[in-house]
Amino acid sequence: MRFSLSQSMVDIQQSLIRFPFVLLCAVLASFAAIQLEKSHNQEAILLPLLLAGVLGIPVMIFLTLVTENSEFSKGSKLATRFSGLVLLANYGFFLPMPLHDSLIIQFFILFLGAHFIISVAPFLGGGDGNSIWHFNKTLLLRFLSSAIFTVVLFAGLSLALLALDKLLGLKLPSDIYYHLMVLLGFVFNTWFTLGGIPKNPREKIAVLEYPRALQVFAQYILSTLVLVYLSIFMIYLVKIVVSGIWPSGWIGWLVSGVASVGLLSLVLLWPLTRGPGHKWVDRYFLLFQIFMIPSATMLILAVSKRVNQYGLTELRYVLLVLACWLVVAVVMSIYTRRLSLKAIPLSLGILALLISFGPWGATDLSMRSQKGRLEKTLFEAGFLVDGKLFAAFSPDVDVDQNEIRNSFRYQIQQFGLAGLRDWFSPELTESIENSGTFQYRGSRVNLIMADLGFHDGIEKPLRPVLNHVLQGEGHQHAIDLDGFQYSLLFELTRGQSSRFDWGGENSSIDLDDPGGHLEIRRQDEMLINIPLVDLLKDLVEATDDGRGFDLASLAEMTFDFSNEKARIRLILHRALFRDDQEQPLVVNIQGVLLLAEVTGN
Q: What is the 3-state secondary structure (H, E, C) of 461-517?
């Protein structure tokens, strides 16, 4: 494959006309990624835009390839591509925020599925094996060259910007390198790759140009590694049969990886099966089929055991589906005595779409499985009565508090609160919703555990509420400086220190650990030592609603301190306070500090 810079530039220009919607998605994704880094408070808008834009790149490539070689009219082709944009807009619009882990897994399944279907998109209406292989070889080589060019271009431009900064004294913003990386990664890399997509992929290829380096890589590296690992799997299978010990859980990822590499090697070696003198490819194909069925069976047994023990999760569901697909694919290839270059990626793409949505999808099935296990535990311990959580703890009840806490944490982290709301009382629901602006998922778990009467630890229940989220109204009001000279917006976690400039002098604000004192220093000299633990403890007693989320007024969250050196006003916006009887802790605080120097009398 020859590379011509002039031809590449022509291809890049033509790809703007050929793939305008793909480039639109790339531009929108880069815009969202850059703005996310600048403005985290717009995450609810920018993150869905980013995911929809990234997913839109392969989806719009697929729709373009499907329609451009079809007999559709110009209007029908345009309408089909517009419908893809509408679907992507709906996907982004209906993404629930905050984004839970299950939605990230769903996104990657869809993203990979779209790439699988791209590999056969021009051939859904026909096309021979030579054309399919040549099309995908061209895509692969173009993608690899695009990745190399993008990395080299980023490194070169970054060094140029660094030289401008260090040698010429230009004060460039620190985030310019991130912006450059995003623009090159999304826009340039996508644009350059699009320029190499063949315009007539169904064109008959009489003789395939098979790169020698590709043959060496597939024949002597990939195929050898696959056979070595499959032999190890066979030995391991014999060990399982003899010892009667179930296969280890991580065997699933090994089998999946070896199957993927094996199928890739077979696809790369496919043209060699069309010529004489390559009987070894047929033998390798046969050995792969023979060894793959028991390996896939081990995979199914290993995942099934984990499902019986710990319930279904998205990853276990995906592994089970892939194992079943692998068995079917191997059996079909043995029956037909050939490897279908169209059926493999097409079936994987369709599977990815099917398991992403609906009651049979990975998310819904996993959520029902995990919720069912938690429901059984809560019901047997007396914590779930008539479908509602009930604080029924008794010292005589044998309850694994840690298991309950971890189950709730997994549910919230993986699926959010959607599957649990019907268990909550109105009071608990209100407390959780009020804590919605507090981004730590653990705070919601603490509220639920407190509702059940558990201590924050894992050994014994003490008091119903241990962690308090103090939410002030200060962030909703303009701040009156009231004679103060400086203001500082801050956020600190215990043990953390933050430095700032105060009238040209180096100063710091520290939240010490474990004492819980807020210390303000100037030129390393202590100015004010605020007993924050005592202040918050008194505030909790005054505002405690019994559920861990305490709403305080601006006046209640404002504290004034002064001495002969400085006058300070502390306005707290939010504080996480652990009201432990033995060692109260200030975990995190956010707010504003007003500062003024005290001049002589």
A: CCCCCCEEEEEECHHHCCCCCCCCCEEEEEEEECCCEEEEEECCEEEEEEECCCCCC
Instruction: State the DSSP code for 267.
Output: H
Are residues 147 and 223 in contact, defined by beta-carbon separation less than 8 angstroms? no
Which residue is listed with tokens 């103060």? 484
DSSP state of 389: E
User: C-alpha angle with apex 229: 110 to 212, nearest 5 degrees?
Assistant: 75
> Residues 2-21: pLDDT tens digits?
555 566 666 677 888 889 99
pLDDT grade for 456, boundaries at 50, 70 and 90? very low
Within 10 angstroms of residue 435's Cβ, the number of other Cβ atoms is 19
End-to-end CA distance of the chain: 85
Q: Which residue has the tokens 């909790």?
A: 540
- Across 343-378, b (16+ Cβ under 10 Å) vs e yields ebbbbbbebbbebbeeeebbbbbbbbbbbeebbebb
Find, among 260, 6, 299, the residue nearest to 112 by Cα.
260
pLDDT digit string, tens, across residues 114-128: 999 998 888 887 777
Strand partners for 471 = 551, 574
The count of other CB atoms within 10 Å of the CB of residue 125 is: 10
Q: Quick one: tokens of 454?
A: 């558990």
| Cα distance between residue 429 and residue 417, in whole Å | 10
Q: What is the DSSP letter of 595?
A: E
Helix, strand, coil in percent for the chain, rounding step 5 = 60, 15, 30
**Which amino acid makes up residue 368?**
R
Query: β-strands 549-552, 467-472: how paired?
Result: parallel
Say how far apart CA 161 and CA 166 lie, in whole Å.
9
Torsion of CA 315, 317, 319, 321, to 10 degrees: -150
Q: How far apart are CA 520 and CA 497, in angstroms?
A: 10
CB 246 within 8 A of CB 302: yes
Q: Cα–Cα distance between 544 and 473 in angstroms, integer?
A: 16
Contact indicator for 394, 452 with CB cutoff of 8 Å: no
Distance between alpha carbon 386 and the CA centroid of its chain, in Å?
A: 36
Residue 39 has pLDDT above 90, yes or no: no
Strand pairing class (558-562; 549-552) = unpaired
Spatial CA neighbour of 117 closest among 68, 65, 80, 76: 65
Strand, helix or coil for residue 566: strand
For residue 161, how many other CB atoms are within 10 A of its CB?
15
Q: Measure the CA–CA gap between 438 and 574, rounded to whole angstroms.
A: 9
> Which has the closest alpha carbon to 120: 131, 107, 109, 105?
131
**What is the pTM assigned to this prediction?**
0.69
CA of residue 574 relative to chain centroid, distance: 27
Strands 566-578 and 497-502: unpaired
> Number of C-alpha atoms within 13 angstroms, CB side, residue 357?
6
- The mean-pLDDT minimum among 278-292, 387-401, 537-551 falls in 387-401
CB 497 within 8 A of CB 508: yes
Q: How far apart are CA 328 and CA 338, in angstroms?
A: 14
Provide φ and ψ at 541, rounded to 5°: -60, -30
Contact 226, 47 (CB under 8 A): no
Specify the residue for token string 């403890």. Answer: 537
